[in-house]
Amino acid sequence: MTFDGNQVVVEGTIWGADGCKTADLTEAAYDSGSDELRISVGTKEQTDAGDMCTQAIMEIDYRATVTFANGLPGTVSVSHDSGDGPSPVTTATR
C-alpha cells in the first residue's frame, strides 16, 4: 500500500477458487468521522471465461487506486473475501 500525492494505491493477491475467477473490488468506502478508507476485494467469474476452467486454487493479483480531492485518509484497511466471508488483510496509518 502506498500513499502518493492525492492517491492511495493498494496492490495485493487474493485466492480464486479456480482459473475462471478474477479480482473484484467489492467496496471502497471513506468514513470521514474516523478518517478511514475501507477497501474490500473479492472474486467473481471472468466474463469471458468460457466453459473450461483450471480446477485449482489460483493466485489473482490486483491493484486498486483511490483518488482524494481533499487530502488522504489517516487510515486505510483492506480485507479479502474468497467466498467464506471477509477477512482483514492489512491496515496502514499515515
Q: What would your notes on this structure say?
A:
By secondary structure, the protein is mostly beta strands. 0% of the residues lie in helices and 62% in strands. It contains no helices and seven strands. The radius of gyration is 15 Å and the shape is elongated.
Write a brief structural summary:
Helix content is 0%, strand content 62%.
Shape: elongated
Distance between the termini: 11 Å
- Count of individual helical segments: 0
Q: Percent range for helical residues?
A: under 10%
Write the layout of secondary structure elements.
Blueprint: E1 2-4, E2 7-16, E3 21-31, E4 36-45, E5 58-67, E6 75-81, E7 87-93
Parallel strand pairs: 4-6
Antiparallel strand pairs: 1-2, 2-5, 3-4, 6-7
Keywords, separated by commas or semicolons:
single chain, 94 residues, 0% helix
